[in-house]
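Hi P.,

Sorry for the delay on this. The queue was packed all week, but I finally got your sequence through. Input first:
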Amino acid sequence: MNLIVFWALSLVCIGVETLGLVIGRQDVHYAGALATAGVVAVHLILTRAEGRHE
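Then the structure:
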């Protein structure tokens, strides 16, 4: 996963989190938070698999 894809997915997930807060739906907010955590986790796993992580 390159950095452009990582940041694009992260921004979409953060946008969903913010939308959930604005409209007052906690389930949407939590789904966005879990999706953000998933994007970060997958990025770390792929980075370590490529051997770029220190």
